[in-house]
Amino acid sequence: MTFLNISLLAGAGLVVAPILLHLLMRRRPRRLEFPAIRFLQKRQWPQQRRLRIRHWLLLALRAGVIALLAMALARPSVIFSGDWALQEEPIAAALVFDTSVRMEYRHENQTRLEAAKEAALWLLAELPDQSDIAILSTRSGPAAFEVDRASARDRIGRLETSPDSVPLPTAIARALELLQTSEKRLREIYIFTDLAQTAWPKEGLAQLRSQWETALGLSVYLLDVGVQTPKDFALQALRLPRQILSSRGTLVVQTQVQAIGTDGVCTVELDVLENDPTSGKRSLQKREEKVCQLQAGQGQEVVFRLRGLSTGVHQGQVRIVGGDALAANDVRYFTFEVKPGWQVLVAAPESAHVVSAFVTEALAPRQLRLSGQARYECRLIRQEELAETDLAPYAALLLLDPKPLEEVLWQKLAGYAADGHGLIICLGRNAEPIETFQTPAAQTLLPAPLRMQVHRPDFDTYLAPPDRQHPVLAEFRRMSGTVPWDAFPVLRYWQLGDLSKGVQIVIPYSDGRPALLERVVGKGRVLTLTTPLTDNANQEPWNFLPVGDAWPYLILLNEMVAYVVGASEHQLNYTVGQTVVLKPPTGSGRRAYVVTAPDGMTFSVPTEGPQNPLVITGLTQPGNYRVQAGSGPDSLEAGFSLNLAPDQTRLDRLAPNELNELLETKNVRLARSRQEIHRHISVGRVGHELFPFLIGLVACLWGAELLVANRFYKD
Q1: Which end of the chain has the least Cβ crowding within 10 Å, N or C?
Q2: Is 226 exposed, middle or buried (0-12, 13-18, 19+ CB in 10 A)?
Q3: How does pLDDT run across 632-691, given as a tens digit for each residue?
Q4: Which SS3 state, helix, strand or coil, does residue 420 take?
Q5: Rounded CA gap, 335 and 572, in Å?
Q6: What 3-state DSSP class applies to 183?
Q7: Exposed/middle/buried for 285, CB within 10 Å: 0-12, 13-18, 19+?
Q8: Contact between 100 and 56 (Cβ < 8 Å)
Q9: Is the pLDDT of residue 84 over 50?
Q10: pLDDT tens profile 142-169
């Protein structure tokens, strides 16, 4: 329905006046007596009727010209939003700000948030009196109308960026809900944004558009405070293949530096926090730097490697040297822990002793052993020596294709695992008679009773992980593409009975039966593989896992050992908004820890029990955090790092087609200057002015009046 906002009171007199003048001042005929007038009178009446019609037509045209001119001068307008209002009618307005760290981008010595706040303060003064005003941002928090305009002005001035901002559609949905509670007929939303793609996820846009379409009396204004072509160097998320490594290992830190809208040379530096022996404080020391030559829109991979690290928790950062427009994506933080080299015991029967040396070589290659960089220190013994071997010094034990064990030895292994050590059992041809593996002591470690050997001679059975979420498969998860497990078929394996309580299937076979299983025993973990790792490929092998280009076998073996020794279960690097979970050292016995934030502030975090993990939530400040407990020789030192999510600092703006889809929604208008804002508000609140259309009609009617008058007067 169309409504006209016009004022005709002032023009009414202008319309009536010419009509009265036309009627009062027209020339009246003089009455003269004439004797022979009968024939003339008969001709006069038709002519009078024609003249009267012409006069009324001319009168209508002249009156129409004056009426339309008066209407045009009244500046009428029309809107199509289903409601109409006067210019100064109070409204319900919500000002929504994007406060992600991306809004710290500096252009012409002003951040995008400062530009948004400046525009908002001007807009605040332009809103009608008695309006309901709400100030919202992408930072989580309640939505409410401000008490008065001064309160709204103060709220705008106190706006700051937030590392854990929610997408804009989420904040806009909160604004819509709030506006529905207002009694004002007209509702307006002003969105201050840099139009970055990450702020407008596609899954939220569809629902938001439908809400905009159905809201009555709603006008939405997008105020673009971004830079059309941003220029910046940015670091992507850090990748640490190992967060826990041995003192013999090498720390690898990977990232990518990208050039956005500019070419140039960029220097990337890795710094490590080290203790100052004189002051006892930690300070950043440069360990390595890389120089990158970049072109706009391109990225370059940067890899740092550190060796010779001392045991303990280490923290550092990777940063872009020098400043640019956005400092938030110039630095990334990391934490890692160095432990003494893990000792691994490998036990195998005499018949498999020679082949088992391949396993120790896969875990600790000779070149790495000679250079002192081997991750593990492996010792290979015969299964017969296992009963007399002290297992305490070893972090993990591998039982390769074991023969039946005595009950006492099963009990010894159960105690070893319960104390927090790792145990890997690879079942094979020597697991007979199966009754010896069904004893109560054996079943405390094995995942289930052994049933029978399954033969798969058609080479169509292989390891088939359904996903890569288990820590054992973490290294495969980092790889792009698929792993060619079908190139390493399994010809025989042990079928198990009903699984014991708490047993988890890590990897099944392609036929669905379990291949690798995990069982928690006390403080330790036990992995059981139902096919061996040490079969000779030339002597009726059970599988071809170690044959040919067996890189999946090497990765799987190393990851299995890393998991049971605890090298892959700890996460020390998190994203802002994630819950931090730290596992205390075995036997620490502490119930509270002191956490030091990057800004130096400290707070205490309790645990529910001496062996329960330390859980920390609600952290929003990126940086390196220290976790301490106690003092002296019994003190505990740990730590973790928080980084911004990469999406929080991406500057890619909405593509033209995406922006058009957003603006095609009813009552959504884009503005980049105060003049555009004022014009859009006038159109949205008052409507489209009809002045140009009415002036055109005046010209048309005036032309018609001239044509008709000339024709009439000519006759």
Answers
A1: N
A2: buried
A3: 666 788 899 999 988 889 998 887 777 777 766 666 788 888 888 877 676 655 555 566
A4: coil
A5: 6
A6: coil
A7: exposed
A8: no
A9: no
A10: 889 998 999 999 999 999 999 888 888 8
The string over 124-134, giving b where at least 16 C-beta atoms fall within 10 Å of a residue's C-beta and e elsewhere, is: beebbeebbbb
Q: Cβ(402)–Cβ(349) under 8 Å?
A: yes
Residues whose CB is less than 8 angstroms from the CB of residue 470 and which lie 6 or more positions away in sequence, other chains included: 504, 506, 518
Question: What does the buried/exposed string (b/e) look like for 601-638 if buried means 16 or more CB atoms within 10 Å of the residue's CB?
Answer: eeeebebeeeeeebebeebeebebbbbebeeeeeeeeb
| DSSP track, 391-416 | -TT-SEEEEESPPP--HHHHHHHHHH
Cβ atoms of 390 and 556 within 8 Å: the answer is: no
Tallying the residues shown for the chain, one arrives at 715
How do strand 580-582 and strand 524-529 relate by DSSP bridges? unpaired
Tell me which residue has tokens 């008058």: 709
Q: Is 164 helix (H, G, I), strand (E, B) or coil?
A: coil
Residue with tokens 């009618």: 89
Token output for 231: 């220029």
Distance CA 628, CA 635 (A): 7
Q: In whole angstroms, how large is the CA radius of gyration of the chain?
A: 41
Q: 463 and 507 in contact (C-beta within 8 Å)?
A: yes
Q: Cis (ω within 30 of 0) for the bond into 433? A: yes
Please tell me the distance from the alpha carbon of residue 245 to that of residue 255, in angstroms, as a whole number.
19
Helix (H) or strand (E) holding 629: strand 623-629
How many Å apart are CA 238 and CA 334, to the nearest integer?
8
3-class state of residue 674 by DSSP: helix
What predicted TM-score, i.e. pTM, was given to this entire model?
0.75
DSSP for 495-534?
EE-SPPTT-EEEEEBTTSSEEEEEEEETTEEEEEESS-S-
d(CA 361, CA 366): 7
Phi, psi of 229 (to 5 degrees): -130, 85
pLDDT at 1: 38
Instruction: Indicate if the alpha-carbon torsion angle 685, 691, 697, 698 is positive or negative.
Output: positive
CA distance 693 to 592: 77
**Half-sphere exposure of residue 668: CA atoms within 13 angstroms, side-chain side:** 21
DSSP conformation class of 536: -
User: Is pLDDT of 696 > 70?
Assistant: yes
Collapse the DSSP code of 18 into the 3-class scheme (helix H, G, I; strand E, B; otherwise coil) and give the result. Answer: helix
Q: What span, in angstroms and rounded, lies between the C-alpha atoms of 185 and 639?
A: 55
Residue among 596, 617, 593 at smallest CA distance from 606: 593
Can you tell me the distance from the alpha carbon of 295 to that of 444, in angstroms, rounded to the nearest whole number? 61
List 187's β-bridge partners, or say none.
Answer: 92, 218
Spatial distance between the Cα atoms of 558 and 156, rounded to a whole number of angstroms: 55
List the 264-275 sheet strands across, edge first: 244-246, 331-339, 312-320, 264-275, 282-294
Alpha-carbon distance of 516 to 505, in angstroms, equals: 6
Pairing, β 450-455 against β 492-496:
antiparallel
- Long-range CB pairs of 284-293 (<8 Å, 24+ gap) are 284/316, 284/317, 287/316, 289/321, 291/265, 291/266, 291/267, 292/257, 292/265, 292/266, 292/267, 292/268, 293/265
